[in-house]
Amino acid sequence: MSITVSALRETAVGERRVAITPEVAKKFRSKGLRVLLEHDAGTAAGFPDGSYADVAFATADQVLAETDLLACVLPPDDDVFGRLREGGTVIGQLRPHGAGARMEVLAQRKLTAFSLELLPRTTRAQAMDVLSSQAAVAGYRAMLIAAENAPKFFPMLTTAAGTIRPSRVLVIGAGVAGLQAIATARRLGAQIEGYDVRPETREQVESLGAKFLDVGVSAAGSGGYARELTVEERAAQQQALAEHLKVLDVVVTTAAVPGRAAPKILTAAMVQGMKPGALVVDLAAESGGNCELTRPGERVEHAGVVILGPLNLAAGAPLHASEMYARNIYNFAELLVRDGALQPDFNDELVAKSCVARNGELLAGV
After folding, report:
1. Which phi and psi (to 5°) does residue 267 adopt?
2. What CA–CA distance (Å, rounded) separates 191 from 61?
3. Domain residues of the chain, as ranges?
4. 47, 175, 287, 291: which has the fewest C-beta neighbours closer than 10 Å?
């Protein structure tokens, strides 16, 4: 019997992505796997049932009863893992930290589960790095939101009514999301700067045509993330940033670490010092925000400055976000399927470090 790989319609609020696209379904079929989807699983992403070739469709209950390998974008409703047949395998962004009840169900059902947020940030993992692919979408959309909500034009314009100066924009955090935000602001014609405590990002920021803001604080870490700043370093960072913020029109913050609260970079006092009409778009809102005043999913106004905390930005561009995410899923699934059977090699670092449940046990660190 061939392996059945499946996906359900995503149920998180506002979620429009799908874990298996027509392109990836075709790739699974070429490997001899059966693909089974819930009806309309891809419709919200722009992939109606008719766009899938040689794929079976069924109700959610039927899908769960027949699935060997379930792919998801975000954790499904709490009862889904309990309805998945015992011994099955799950791949997706499972958000295991702080989700004890959901993780316990994985163990009770003896499911093998892989949370792709936990993949090591190595060259080999890039093809399956869901954090990077979805962060690229989020960074792009964050800057479009900034341009739409800013009270000024982004580019310089010369008109019969005079010359309009370009907006001054700062992106805090030069990871994938930050770099994509910088590139987007550059395309829109803004005067753009990038800032990160990791000095190695300077070259990346400048390669996109932006100026690197150096505040004299360096915090190079491991695994692609910055180390935590000391009290003295944080004070120096905030003092330098506070002074620079006074001249900016837009600030987009993107500093986040999976499974941890986002670092607080902008204090209320720093926002207070910004000029009226300035805008902050906090891409880290889902994990608490980089700004003390951020409220997830809300618009806040403080001393004439607007702070936006948008959520799940990748879901707002579901077609391309799904295409990238589904390719990540497929590339990881190739590590699990050998000789037509699910045979994960737990000696493989990528497999071992992303596994959160196996043989009825939750793994250490979950």
Report:
1. -85, 165
2. 53
3. 4-128+317-360, 135-315
4. 287
Catalytic (active site) residue 85: no
| CATH number for the domain formed by residue range(s) 4-128+317-360 | 3.40.50.720
pLDDT, mean over the chain: 93
Exactly one of 108, 126, 207, 239 is catalytic; name it: 126
In the set 85, 121, 227, 338, the catalytic residue is: 121
Determine whether 195 is an active site residue. no
Q: Classify each residue of 275-298 as buried b or exposed e, where b means 16 or more C-beta atoms within 10 Å of its C-beta.
A: eeebbbbbbbbbbbbbbbbbeeee
- Single out the catalytic residue among 225, 234, 272, 287: 225
Can you give the pLDDT at residue 256?
86
- The CATH number, out of the four listed (3.40.50.720, 3.40.1440.10, 3.30.1300.10, 3.30.70.940), of the domain defined by the range 135-315: 3.40.50.720
